[in-house]
Design goal:
By secondary structure, the chain is α/β, with parallel strands linked by helices. It has 8 helices and 13 strands. The strands form 3 sheets. The protein has an 8-stranded mixed barrel, surrounded by 7 helices. The relative contact order is 0.13.
């Protein structure tokens, strides 16, 4: 399977014109995939203090601003989005994009924005039950003339979704790394699986777990496409999909670095492994680990300062992210 590269853009701390410029530039550069995320607040969480755009409406812009790349959202949380309504939105986006839309679904994690916006945020077991019911409803609406489903959390009655998507089978991707339930749901229902912020070794191990779940579900693991968000940056994480490995001097590493340099004009690139936190040397005088690097498009990096050393709560585990804000010329 050939390696494909894509950009996953967190739609925060940018004006709408800058985001649209990024979309056009990504597409013109030949990237295979462009996606955003489904949040109301910024990530890492900062109490809703940073500007952030809503996902579905922004996907409409992504659809019409691009012409070649596959587009999507990694990932929608069904606790925010009624599955039938989400299927309708996915169909509309597939038509706007000429059949290039991919629908990503996951179990959610951003408890702070959920509480702020009045959404229930149940335990993970319940959220994954929401996810599995949503997969069944959405698949039915995207592929069948009529769908009825009565679950514990969602229901539809003799529902149609017309017009049908442009794609005969609009792909559904599942995002997450939970070995006991998330990967099992992916094996039963998904066309693709995305693992965010995992090391290459962990991605490989989880892929084997997914293979086991596919065997139990009677599916060929080769039916699922796999993707890993490898560059940890809210501005430009990079999705590398296919069969790959990373390391200094690896062609994939070099290709990712070139895309980042050409798109954002980042200076001082280092030939480090894709996925390591300190991907770029930004004139840091501190030895602290950098997890997130904010870089404005079309500018040259002059220096960087540590502006936050921890973020309250878990994001998404016990590690507290360190954020570097780039001082620009």
């Amino acid at each position: 399977m050939p390696v494909k590269l894509g950009a996953h853009l967190g739609q925060q701390n940018l004006s709408i014109d800058e985001i649209r410029t990024c979309f056009r530039r990504f597409d013109a550069s030949g990237l295979d995939w462009i996606s955003i995320w489904d949040h109301f607040y910024e990530a890492p969480p900062a109490g809703g203090t940073q500007p952030h755009f809503e996902a579905i409406s922004l996907l409409g812009a992504l659809a019409v601003e691009t012409h070649s790349a596959t587009i999507g959202c990694l990932v929608f949380y069904p606790g925010y989005r009624n599955p039938a309504s989400l299927a309708k939105a996915a169909t509309t986006l597939d038509h706007l994009s000429g059949g290039r839309f991919v629908l990503g679904l996951g179990g959610g994690w951003h408890e702070w924005e959920a509480r702020a916006y009045g959404y229930d945020f149940p335990p993970i077991g319940t959220r994954l039950a929401l996810l599995e019911e949503a997969c069944q409803i959405i698949r039915g609406l995207l592929t069948q003339p009529r769908t009825s489903f009565a679950g514990k959390h969602f229901r539809v009655e003799n529902a149609s979704c017309l017009p049908a998507p442009v794609q005969a089978r609009l792909p559904i991707w599942i995002g997450g790394t939970g070995e006991k339930r998330t990967l099992a749901i992916a094996a039963r229902h998904a066309d693709g699986w995305n693992a965010a912020y995992t090391s290459p070794a962990e991605f490989t191990r989880l892929s084997r777990v997914l293979d086991d779940w596919c065997a139990k579900a009677g599916r060929d693991p080769g039916e699922l496409l796999l993707a890993r968000i490898a560059q940890r940056s809210p501005r430009l994480p990079v999705i590398v999909s296919g069969d790959f490995n990373t390391g200094e001097g690896n062609p994939v590493t070099q290709a990712v670095a070139k895309v980042l340099r050409d798109t954002f004009r980042v200076v001082h690139p280092t030939a480090t492994e894709v996925g390591t936190a300190n991907q770029f040397k930004l004139g840091m005088t501190t030895g602290d680990k950098i997890d997130y690097i904010f870089v404005e498009p079309g500018t040259e990096v002059m220096s960087a300062d540590i502006v936050r050393t921890s973020v309250g709560g878990r994001y998404p585990s016990d590690h507290f992210p360190v954020v570097a804000r780039v001082r620009l010329r």
